[in-house]
Specification:
Number of domains: 1
Distance between the termini: 21 Å
Largest sheet: 6 strands, parallel
Number of helices: 14
Helix content: 40-55%
CATH architecture: Alpha-Beta Barrel
Length: 310
């Protein structure tokens, strides 16, 4: 069987002005986030990764005032566009959106797709403490559905009141070990029950970390939501139709098996979460995962090519 094209979808960079605004300090990870050339490609080559779909690092522009968010999102997307132009066979892009101004965010998404050739958008969780099921954000999803591109919902730390109540004694848990999962799991469930997918039936959503536990919870969530909330369709039907899951930062055979069982292999996409996770272990894990070779090829790149029109 020919070697499949290896594509990863949750791989980050930091644009200079957003880096300065956040006061990011020099570190090995930050140096990788700064790079859109030789260092990044060398680490891709070491793992046999052919194409990275790159996105601005968390929290992107989503906690800025609207005017600043619009300006810096556009600058970030222009920088990323130049990197893709310089390395068109190695890089593709997800747009950064200025979600504090939803109408401007929708317009920026259209610019990035139609003029810059981006493959979709990545949204970094909460915007000033508000989930994206809030109807003020629906113009973004309306535009994504019209353009037929996916929106990747990426974790961000839970709102401060949650962090204070749940993680005050254990602040390390508030981010990737647990807080990210709780924030994004809640976020995606809210999208389903909000009626968003009835309004925009062609909308496509990507979630990382093999769905932030949703496959494991699918039966129970579906049973109880269907019993207690009036919805036109079952919760699981919406989720299986509108969501794709990536392996980013979740290199687990049991978790992968569960995700495939609930979603089908056609909804699973390979990702690493570089540079927060290293490329080589992610590649080695999927190479050895208990999969038929045809299914492995779909996860490594076939599903991404179809979803992103690569």
């Amino acid at each position: 069987m020919p070697q499949p094209q290896i594509i990863t979808l949750e791989e980050h960079f930091t644009s200079p002005k957003l880096k300065a605004l956040r006061g990011e300090k020099d570190s090995p990870v930050q140096r990788k986030l700064d790079d859109l050339g030789e260092l990044r490609i060398a680490e891709m080559d070491a793992a046999g990764i052919d194409l990275q779909v790159i996105s601005e690092n968390n929290p992107a522009t989503q906690n800025l005032d609207a005017e600043t968010a619009v300006k810096l999102a556009r600058e970030s997307n222009d920088i990323l566009h130049e990197a893709v132009r310089a390395h068109p066979t190695r890089f593709a892009a997800f747009a950064t959106l200025p979600t504090p101004d939803p109408k401007a965010a929708a317009a920026e998404l259209e610019r990035c797709i139609d003029k810059l050739g981006f493959k979709g958008a990545m949204i970094m969780g909460l915007t000033h403490g508000r989930f994206m099921d809030d109807r003020q954000f629906w113009p973004i999803f309306e535009r994504a559905a019209k353009l037929d591109v996916p929106v990747y919902i990426h974790p961000t730390p839970p709102m401060q009141v949650v962090q204070d109540a749940w993680f005050k004694e254990y602040p390390a848990l508030a981010v990737a070990p647990l807080g990210f999962t709780l924030e994004t799991l809640t976020h995606t469930v809210r999208l389903v029950v909000s009626g968003l997918f009835d309004e925009f039936p062609s909308l496509k959503i990507i979630v990382g970390h093999l769905g932030e536990t949703m496959p494991y919870l699918m039966w129970r969530t579906n049973y109880l939501v269907t019993e207690r909330m009036k919805m036109p369709r079952a919760f699981a039907d919406y989720y299986r139709e509108h969501f794709w899951l990536t392996t980013s930062g979740s290199f687990s055979d049991p978790a992968l098996t569960c995700a495939i069982a609930e979603m089908g292999v056609g909804r699973i996409l390979f990702s690493v979460d570089w540079p927060f996770m290293p490329n080589v272990p992610g590649r080695q894990w999927l190479d050895a995962a208990p999969l038929a070779e045809q299914d492995r090829a779909l996860i490594f790149g076939g599903n991404a090519r179809k979803l992103l029109k690569i």
